[in-house]
Design goal:
Structural class: alpha+beta
Shape: elongated
Radius of gyration: 19 Å
Strand content: 15-25%
Order of helices and strands: EHEEEEHEHHEEH
Length: 165
C-alpha cells in the first residue's frame, strides 16, 4: 500500500445577482467537479532537503542566503513570502470589509483561507500570486522545497548576472 497526498483547489470566483443565486451556482459547480483533486504519491524513500525561510533585517532569507528582492517585486516567482500571522490579520480585515451579496464567493474563499492558516503553525508561508493558494512547509513540504529551490536558482542567476556587468 502506498501513501498519497490529496490537494483540493477551487475554480475561479463566480459572480451572481444575489446570495441565493451564488449559493445555487456554488452547489451546481460543487456537484459538477467544482473541487479538483490533485493526487501525488508520497515517496517514502526520497530524502528531502530541509529549507528554512525567514524574514529578518528587512530581507528574506532561505537557509541564511539573502534573497534579491527583485524576485518578488518583479514577480519572477509565482509565490510571495508571507508572515502567517500578518496574512491572518489581513484576512480578518478583508472579511470585515466584504459586504453585499456579490461578495459571497470572495467571503467564502477568505474564510476557507483563514481556517487553513489558523490550523497550521508555520511562521512563514508562500502565497500564490495568481490564486488564493498558500503553501506551508508543515502541510506540503515537497512543494514548499520546490518553491525554495526555484527562488534560490533565480537568486543565483541574478547574482551571476550582476557579476558579468
Amino acid at each position: 500500500m502506498k501513501n498519497y497526498k490529496v490537494k483540493f483547489q477551487t475554480e475561479d470566483i463566480i459572480k451572481a445577482k444575489n446570495e441565493e443565486d451564488a449559493e445555487k451556482i456554488f452547489w451546481d459547480r460543487f456537484e459538477n467537479s467544482f473541487w479538483k483533486a490533485e493526487v501525488k504519491e508520497i515517496k517514502e524513500d526520497k530524502k528531502m532537503k530541509n529549507y528554512n525561510v525567514e524574514i529578518k533585517n528587512n530581507g528574506i532569507y532561505i537557509n541564511d542566503i539573502l534573497i534579491d528582492e527583485s524576485i518578488f517585486q518583479e514577480e519572477k516567482c509565482g509565490y510571495s513570502v508571507q508572515d502567517r500571522e500578518n496574512q491572518i490579520n489581513d484576512l480578518y480585515m478583508w472579511i470585515g470589509e466584504a459586504t453585499g451579496s456579490d461578495r459571497a464567493n470572495d467571503l467564502y474563499l477568505m474564510k476557507e483561507d483563514l481556517r487553513y492558516l489558523e490550523n497550521i503553525r508555520d511562521e512563514i508561508i508562500f502565497s500564490s500570486i495568481g490564486t488564493n493558494d498558500f503553501i506551508a512547509k508543515s502541510d506540503d513540504e515537497e512543494t514548499f522545497n520546490s518553491i525554495c529551490e526555484e527562488i534560490l536558482k533565480l537568486n543565483e542567476e541574478i547574482k551571476n548576472g550582476s557579476k558579468r556587468i
